[in-house]
Amino acid sequence: MTNGRPIRGQTLIPAALGPAEDAGGSDEVQRGRPPEDANREAEGSSLMSVFDTIRIAASGLTAERLRMDVAASNIANSQTTRSQSDPTQPYQAEAVIFQARQMGLDSSSQGVSAIAMVNPARPNVRTYDPGNPDADAEGFVSYPNVDVSSEMTDMMGAARSYQVNATVAQAAKQQALDALDLGKG
């Protein structure tokens, strides 16, 4: 991993879903659960609440949004010959490193989180353009190491994954609403 930097400020669990809403999270909810569910958990069988499902999907949404943001930034800066940190160097492409993360009380509920941003080890592209103000003494201009077709492919994959995670969250929400409707009747 070259030039990796940790990700900060990434919210993986929406603020609207507090631990008291999780079927495995608080003592008040634990007391309200049927004894057979508590016995199944004690025997080692894992139960996943609808809120665990939504949290996992939300972590996927967050991860894929970050992946799309990074790809968009790379594409937008594909012709940027000066970076903000070092004006003598072109923009450096970035990539996100993801890792599985436990989301529920049991180890079977795994979401995803971004752990680092890295600069892929690809050389800059040198182009002969002596009229460019950023040309060196030999007349070459260094352009970023961004492969636009690869970034577009990554962005399309991230958009599709985002769509799938949104569908999962919507289905889990609808399932919970249907269960509440059953309880009314």
Describe this structure in words.
With 185 residues, the protein is an alpha+beta fold. The chain has one domain (19-179). 42% of the residues lie in helices and 14% in strands. The protein is built from four helices and four strands, in the order αααββββα. A two-stranded antiparallel ribbon has the order 1-2. A two-stranded antiparallel sheet has the order 3-4. Strand 1 and strand 2 (110-118) form a beta hairpin. The protein starts with 26 loop residues before the first helix and ends with a helix. The relative contact order is 0.18. Mean pLDDT is 79; it is low at 10-45.
Question: What would you say about this model in short?
Answer:
With 185 residues, the chain is of the alpha+beta class.
Quickly list its features.
single chain; 185 residues; alpha+beta; two-stranded antiparallel ribbon; 4 helices; 14% strand
Average pLDDT confidence is 79
Q: Which parts are unreliable, with pLDDT below 50 for 5 consecutive residues or more?
A: 10-45
Task: Tell me the β content.
Answer: 5-15%
By DSSP (H or I, 4+ residues per run), the number of helices equals 4
Whole-number total of structural domains? 1
Amino- and carboxy-terminal Cα gap: 57 Å
Rounded to an integer in angstroms, the radius of gyration calculated over CA atoms is: 23 Å
Order of helices and strands: HHHEEEEH
**Sheet with the most strands, sense and barrel status:** 2 strands, antiparallel
| Helix/strand/pairing category | alpha+beta
Q: Give the tally of β-strands.
A: 4
Could you give the order of strands across the largest sheet? 1-2
Label the overall shape: elongated
Helix content: 40-55%
